[in-house]
Amino acid sequence: MTLTLFRRLLRHPSGLVGLLLLALVLAMSLTAGWLFPDGPWTMAGPPRAWPGADPRFPLGTDSFGRDLVASIFYGSRISLMVGVSAAGVALVVGIIVGAVAGYFGGWVDDTLMRITDAFQTIPNFLLSIAIVGIIGASIGTITFAIAIVAWPMIARLVRADVLRLRTYDFVQSCKIIGMSDLRIIFQQILPNCMAPIIVTASVLVANAIVVEASLAFLGLGDPNVMSWGTVLNIGRQELRSGWYITAVPAVALVVTVMSLNLIGDALNDVLNPRLKERT
Amino acid sequence: MTQTLPNSGNGKTTTGPRKALSPALRYVLRRLFQAALVMVLVMVGSFLLVKLAPGDMVDAMAGTRDLTADQMAALRERYGLDQPVIVQLLRYMALLVTFDFGYSPINAAPAMDVILNRLPVTAILVVCSVSLSMVIGTVFGVIASRNAGKPVDLLLSMFMLLLYATPSFIIAVLMMLVFSVKLNLVPIAGFESIGMGYTGLTRFFDIAHHLILPVTALCTFYIAIYGRIGRASMLEVLKLDFVRTARGKGLGEGRIFYVHALRNALLPLVTMAGLQVSSLFGGAVLIETIFGLPGMGRTAFDAVFQRDTNLLLGVVFVSSLVVVIVNFLIDLLYMVLDPRVNLK
Amino acid sequence: MTALLEIENLRIGQGNNAPIVEQLSLSVSRGETVGLVGESGCGKSLTALSVMGLLAGNLGVRDGKIRLEGDEIQSLPQRKLRHLRGEKMGMIFQEPLTALNPVMSVGVQITEVLRNHRGMGRAEARTRAVELLRLVKIPDPEARLDEYPHQMSGGMRQRVVIAIALACSPSLLIADEPTTALDVTVQAQILRLLKQLQRDENLGLLLITHDLGVVRQVADRIVVMYAGSVVEEGLVDEVLDNPRHPYTAGLIAARPSGSFAEGAARLAEITGSVPAPADRPAGCVFRDRCKQARPECEARRPALERAPTGHAVRCHFPLAEGSPA
After folding, report:
1. Where are the beta strands (DSSP E) in chain C?
2. Predicted confidence (pLDDT) per residue in B295-309, tens digit
3. Which residues make Cβ contacts (< 8 Å) with residue C281, sequence separation at least 6?
4. DSSP 8-state symbol, A168
5. Do B169 and A214 touch (CB under 8 A)?
6. How far apart are alpha carbons A182 and A184 in whole angstroms?
7. Is the CB of C86 less than 8 angstroms away from the CB of B244?
8. Whole-number Å distance between alpha carbons of B172 and B213
9. What does the pLDDT look like over B5-40, one tens digit per residue?
10. In the CATH scheme, what is the code of domain A12-36+60-274?
11. pLDDT tens for residues C130-185?
């Protein structure tokens, strides 16, 4: 099934473009260590070399003389890693909370939904900043801080679907034959509401990447890793003299987010045959 | 759904308002109760989060002045920081009811005063961006749906995709580069010109001049969201049966499009506005930091960095309260816009 | 009786695909009810939409003529056509639950027709709307006017749709399966209402349905469609008592007789299903499902042959007159 989904994505124009761009970012993160064995922090050349000025540094160097190409390559690792793991955590928590709330209803639903409300009420980014600021910046806390504001959206989505599906005959008949609630939820109901979850997952990853970059931009990134946000932070102080330091990671960030959005759009079209006739 | 009207069985239909009042009122009260519950959860949660932090307010004070261990112990006793967390929590909640957020060491002022001072800046930012992005985004979405499949639609859709993929802080920095640094058209930072003593209309234009870039930066992403949702929603609505009925009645395409379809397509956009207010109160941190605006986000950011827990909790409380109120108002608006709204 | 609506040799296609409706001719006169009958997918609704000029997407009239009171609909500019809709012809749709705008009050949805076509003011339109609701027998019309569709039952909503269609006293009313989505008891009320309105207002009524019972109850003439074209046509009693096309006979035989008796005849069924436009066989389109099919049927497409009585049939080997259904 995943294979056919992949093939159908490739046949979709925005899916194809999105996958190609994402493959590019993935290739960057995989080859970073091999192409730049010295890591992103080494002062490889003169500081503030403009792109093209020195053939060794096609995208120039930052104010510490670090190669921007290396920074971007290593940064893609952090973006993809944080993006995927934060989205993964958010998906797991969101699916469990949403499925339990929707399936059992009653006070369980009420309680879980009020908690979900509370998380959605605190402005998301504020909560992320507070968590990272209080617990301390590391890849782990950043991932946690991003996931904890992202799961409510999934929980609501799954709950709405489960609420609808649990009244269906096939679920009722599972109950009648004495199937356990857990098996009904995981084997019968959840597989039937995967489509919107998959579409939302791509948006989640994109959001997580943006939030990670934003935190690092504010100086709340993990000080031990080179993230696109770190470069943006450096670039902000050099805006007057070397705007390219901002522009290079900005383009990388926009391209990555765009690729995920394109994939999300394509998934939406591919998984919702109802909407196909539109185009 | 289960409610039965007391006099629905006697065959006489009562007049509209009386019939509607009771469930609507009950709905409003229930929503208010839920909102209060959510606020309590928000406070308990954020209080416990803050207590997770290594170091407390007194440590923060010790950072700015030299304090002996005895003085610190005395301060802890004075602020009740030596009590068990649960006692501290209850005391804090009791204070909150009177809108007393405690003392803010980094500002050397009550946290409430600091917040009240900063709230208007963020409020102006949020109100301007929500209204602007909603109007522009909806117009884009409507134009795109009206020309679905044509070049205009394709161009707009690509433009919106680009806006959608570009984080607001990147737009902010790039606009700052172009319009402030290179072209020198707008001030690079600040809420208003300091020391000019502007009043009245001059002050208004001065502030507007300062806020052009921040508001634009906060808008772009949401213009894309409203545009995309608006387009999809219009196309969805235009396929519904009642549109065919409207055509069958011989109405003009304009009326069908802008009155019949748009009124239905607006509903998801209104929901979006609630989410936008919530995320702008957080997202404004970045924009306020970049443009040096003394708003709520900036305040929270400083509070986090300098461990001013009272101020941080206060900002979280007030921002959440604003979000709860806005969501409540949006629910009420929804009740007016969509007569089908389920008052259950 | 002068013809109010005349359709001649209509062909409707989607893009460049095989035509969905072809060689379709029918007419409706003032004061006459014509039942257009056929299985779902045979092109009944498309025919109705093409009369209203409401074919959407890449569907379009490819050939033939549609005339309303002598005006040729396809050659009219959009503005003129829009004026005919609602003013000269009204349409009732199948799904009363979704046919009304959920966020506009019933009153607005009725009065906007009057204001649009008749240029009435708010108060005048409202007065007329109350009259219309009374005409379609909605109790307490003044109060109902401010209600929203979801506050009404399916039957009530269908009455509102009828009121909208009749707002400007059109001469032609097209009803596309107006009772299919309703409860049986409500169906009868709506049919009775339609019939009464048709008589009182001297309307031409084109009633589209798959239910022969409805046709017998309401219609004067019947047009039977199969796979995009007319296969039989005539006065209701004549066609239903004496079907000449094997398809019509099959439809009649497939009807439950309404008897619950132990020995009631088993329902006959027509084997197979309606072919998609692209899969229609050469020659007679019904031959694949016809028990009487002979080689001749494959060779040549039969023409619609009209008897002096007006009873027309498209079959090389029509059933004998007087043979029982």
Report:
1. 3-14, 21-29, 33-37, 59-68, 71-72, 89-92, 172-176, 204-209, 221-226, 229-235, 305-306, 312-313
2. 888 888 888 888 788
3. C275, C287, C288, C298
4. S
5. yes
6. 5
7. no
8. 7
9. 344 334 344 444 444 457 778 888 888 888 888 888
10. 1.10.3720.10
11. 888 888 888 888 888 888 888 888 888 888 988 888 888 888 889 888 887 778 88
Number of H helices, E strands in chain C: 11, 12
Residue B27 maps to a domain? no
Chain B residues in contact with A135 by the CB 8 A cut-off are 52-53
Q: Distance between CA atoms of C321 and A36, rounded to whole angstroms? A: 93
**Token pair recorded at residue C84:** 């005919």
Q: Which domain holds residue B267?
A: 118-337
- Among candidates B117, B10, B14, B23, which has minimal Cα distance to B343? B23
Residue B17, in any domain of the structure: no
Q: Which residues in chain A are closer than 8 Å to B218, comparing Cβ atoms?
A: none
Cα–Cα distance, A175 to B214 (Å, whole number): 55
Any domain includes B179: yes
B285-317 burial: b if 16+ Cβ within 10 Å, else e? bbbbbbbebbbbbbbbbbbbebbbbbbbbbbbb
Whether the model pTM is above 0.90: no
Closest residue, chain B, to A258 (C-alpha)? B165
Which one of C95, C101, C118, C148 would you mutate to disrupt binding with B, by most B Cβ within 10 Å of its Cβ? C101
Secondary structure letter of residue C149 according to DSSP: G
Measured distance CA(B34)–CA(B150) in Å, rounded:
46
Count Cβ atoms within 10 A of the Cβ of residue A47 and give its class: 0-12 exposed, 13-18 middle, 19 or more buried: middle
Q: State the CATH number of the domain containing residue B156.
A: 1.10.3720.10
Compute the distance between CA of residue B169 and CA of residue A246 in angstroms, rounded to an integer: 11
Nearest CA to CA, how far is C250 from chain B (Å)? 33
In this prediction the ipTM stands at: 0.83
> β-pairing, C221-226 with C59-68?
unpaired
User: Distance between CA atoms of B35 and A114, rounded to whole angstroms?
Assistant: 9
Contacts of B200 (CB under 8 A, 6+ apart): none
Give the torsion through C-alpha atoms of C154, C159, C161, C166, to 10 deg. Answer: 170
Q: For residue B103, what is the enclosing H or E element?
A: strand B103-104
